[in-house]
What does this fold into?
Amino acid sequence: MSAGRAGSAYAASYAAMVVDGHTGKILFSRQGDAIRYPASLTKIMTLFLLFDYIEAGKFKETSRLTVSKTAAKQPPSKIGVKPGQTILVRDAIKALVTKSANDVAVVVAENIAGTEANFAKLMTAKARAIGMKKTVFKNASGLPNKNQVTTARDMITLANRLMFDHPERYRYFSRKYFKYRGKKYRNHNRLLFDYKGTDGIKTGYIRASGFNLVANVRRGNKHLIAVVFGGKTSKRRNAHMRSILNKSLPRATARLPRKHQPTKRPVVAAAPQSPVANNAGTPAAKPYTLAQGSSHTGMVPPSPTQKPRRAQRDTGERPQKKGGYHIQVGAYSSRDDAMQRLAAIQTEAGDVIRGHPPLTTALVEPKRSLYRARFAGFTRSAARTACSQLKRRAITCIVMSAE
It folds into this structure.
């Protein structure tokens, strides 16, 4: 099925969009701003909030979430958790990514916000904060609700921002299988198995939406983020997704991996960079927000004559303290990634964190190391005020006591 004739083979709920991940340019769009039902694409936001809570230290991946009667009675797709049981956070993540488990979505919602309705309010607030202007969430799973709506543009914004804010945990979306209590579940996203370069992210289906899919593809130093709504079958949806990706790849911008770029290249480049994490988990200088009705993002790159700030490398010495609190803006798999994030925020919100030195602190775990990106030298009240200002600019942060 060709991209141009997609409408004849799709339900009235059809919509699609492909964006160049390196530049933010829209390479393909059909009904990109039309209101659609997200179905289980909703779980991308459910996971986004869960990742936020993990990063804030409110949960660990080894924390246990309690299952309620309400969660257990959710209709399929589900893994069949029972009231009173618990599930590890990391297993909940895998169940949402692979099985798209509705029961687990409610478990996550209730353990974070008390009720699913309260959690849905947090989801909608997060959507507004990251630039999803037309999206409203009413539940954590994507089960039918006539008031739960989104657009193709908003879904690409969501996927983009999740990859930018949580590059370390985005890797869960590439998981093909999940074993739990003796059963093995296969990821519903077949592009992970048969479309080169696909590393996530999520499928969805309810009768009102048709078959939906958000895909992230990296091939030959090119990066595409795409969404399709309204497939009459999963097979047709997947075929159409491959078609629009194939048509978009030749027009996408190639970017050399950072390790092959000249050493004199600044940490935050003057030219536009990818809005999301690369395969090594490296975030870009700034996530893109797709302005409504635009063929491009609203991001304007710095002038070539403007010298971007560099984040200072942690030499192992503590910065001179003005107070005993830090603002943490992320945790990454390498120190360079953490420094990149700090440099981006210095450029984007220098007025908020001016005078507070950036630093990276290592967190060594049995199977990996993380590098936390922080700004130091705050009193507790000043840190809370600055973090609130950053959040109003859709920059994720938490206040931490200096160790």
About this structure: The radius of gyration is 21 Å. Residues 4-10, 257-286, 296-321 have pLDDT under 50 and may be disordered. The chain is about 30% helix and 20% strand. The chain has two domains: 6-251, 325-401.
